[in-house]
């Protein structure tokens, strides 16, 4: 069956360090993968999209990699700040051409000052 | 632009009641979708639409109906509420292919529904 796996345990890091979150998937052949941020009580906010033919994408302090052989995406936040504390969701298209993404359960990131 | 708006923000229903969750977007987006989010389950797709007059089922469609008569609006109807439908409901929109490519989804603030 199709699965999107994100670490259910919260990631705790110190301010200034690089946070790395992982998204693994099985039985998908996604054309793209997205990362979102969600704060408590709010809707997810889109951060980055990476396509299947792209290895890496950057936006300010964010970097996403996409390895279709390993079926894995890594999401990095460099020089992390307490304000980066949130839940981060990965999402990928479920194929079939609908381009409506399927979401992982998310990983909570806590950045300690 | 207001983006994606959802009403109501909170709702309490009794088992068996029906109601409609409203969703509207003012970005002329082609694609709209409804998700529910439960603790430990993540976001699950209920129904989606790729344009006015076109809807399709997602992962968990049972007990819900949708219609898309205009580009802007995508209401979600609960036919006969059950306690299992207690959840937070999010509506989202995206430009889709008409936007020149695949872009991320814009989410509304959510509706918190409790069924007793």
Give me some keywords for this one:
heterodimer, A: 113 residues, mainly beta, 6-stranded mixed β-sheet, 5-stranded antiparallel β-sheet, 11 strands, 0% helix, 56% strand, B: 116 residues, 7-stranded mixed β-sheet, 4-stranded antiparallel β-sheet, globular
Description:
The complex is a heterodimer of chains A (113) and B (116). Chain A is built from no helices and 11 strands. Chain A has strands at 3-6, 11-14, 19-26, 32-38, 45-51, 56-59, 62-67, 72-77, 86-93, 101-103, 107-112. In chain A, the strands form 2 sheets. In chain A, strands 2, 4, 5, 9, 10 and 11 form a 6-stranded mixed sheet that branches. A 5-stranded antiparallel sheet of chain A has the order 1-3-8-7-6, with no helix packed on it. In chain A, a hairpin with a 6-residue loop joins strand 4 (32-38) and strand 5. Chain B has strands at residues 4-7, 10-13, 19-25, 31-38, 42-51, 54-57, 64-66, 76-78, 87-94, 106-107, 111-115. By secondary structure, chain B is an all-beta fold. Chain B contains no helices and 11 strands. In chain B, a hairpin with a 2-residue loop joins strand 5 and strand 6 (54-57). Classes of the chains: A mainly beta (113), B mainly beta (116). Chain A binds chain B through residues 31-32, 34, 36, 41-47, 49, 51, 89, 91, 93, 98-106, and chain B through 4, 31, 33, 35, 40-45, 48, 50, 56, 58-59, 90, 92, 94, 96-97, 102-110.
